[in-house]
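Case study.
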Amino acid sequence: MLKLNIVCVGNLKEKFWKEACSEYQKRLQRFCNVKIIELAEQNKYDIVSKVLEEEGKEILASISGSCILLDIQGEEVSSEKLSTKLRNLEQNSSEITFVIGGSNGVSETVKNKIKDKVSFGKITLPHNLARVVLLEQIYRAYMINSGSKYHK
Amino acid sequence: MLKLNIVCVGNLKEKFWKEACSEYQKRLQRFCNVKIIELAEQNKYDIVSKVLEEEGKEILASISGSCILLDIQGEEVSSEKLSTKLRNLEQNSSEITFVIGGSNGVSETVKNKIKDKVSFGKITLPHNLARVVLLEQIYRAYMINSGSKYHK
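After joint prediction, the assembly is written out as follows.
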C-alpha cells in the first residue's frame, strides 16, 4: 500500500480542524497509508528569512519518496489533473510526500529542492484550511480514479 | 453596516464544519452583518436538470443586493482581487449576496441571472468545504482592506 505523507509546518489548534482532517484521513485508509508529519513553526527568530531557513531544514529532513510542494506559484491543477498525477506517481513510487509550508511560506532552498509544485488556485489559504483542502483533494483523487460518483 | 448574505444549497451535517463556519462568522461580526441562508438540496427528482431547476428557483427567491456566484468557470480571483472587489461593491451596495450551489452546481437560469461569477481555482470542492473557504476568504478580504498582518 502506498505511503502518503503530508509534511506540514504549524499545528492545528482548533478541534474542528483536527476533526475535519481526521475525517478525510479515515476515509483515505482504504487507499493508502496516510501519515501527517507536523513540524513546529519556528518562533525563535524575528527575521522571516531565518524562520524559513530553519523550517526549511526540518522540511527537507522529513521528506521521502516522490515530493510535491503546495505552492501558489506552482502549476495550477484541477481535481482531475491531480488524480491523474497521483495515479502516474503511484506507478513508480511506493511513497509520496506532500509539503505544505507555514504561514510565511517556504524557503527558496525548499522550492529549489522540490521540483514538483502544484497550486490549488490564486487564493491564499491559512495553513490549517490548506491541510483540510489537500486531504479532501487527495481523497477526491482516489474517488475519481476509482470511478466513484463522489466526483461527478 | 453591510448586510452580507451567503445563500447555499445543502446543510452542514458534521459538527466540525458548523464550528469552522461559526468561527469565521464570529470573526466577521465586527465588519458586516453575516447571514447564512441554507436551502435544502432537492431530492424529489432523479433528473439533475429538474433538481437544478427547483434549487434555482429557491436560490433566485433568496438573493438580494449585489450578487456574486461561486462558479468554477467564473473569473479566477486571488485573495487580493476579492478584497478589492468587495471594497468596491461596498461603496455602492448596502447588501451583498454570495451564492454557493449544491453538489450538482446551479442551473443555467441562475448562471444567466447572476452575472458576477468568481472562481477560487480549478479544483472542485464539496459544498461544505466551499462554504468554509468562502467565509475565510471574506474574512481575509476584510483583513487585507484593514491592513492587518493576517494576510502578509
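Observations recorded in class. The beta strands of chain B are 3-9, 33-39, 66-76, 95-100, 117-119. The longest helix of chain B spans residues 127-145. We will return to this complex in the next lecture.
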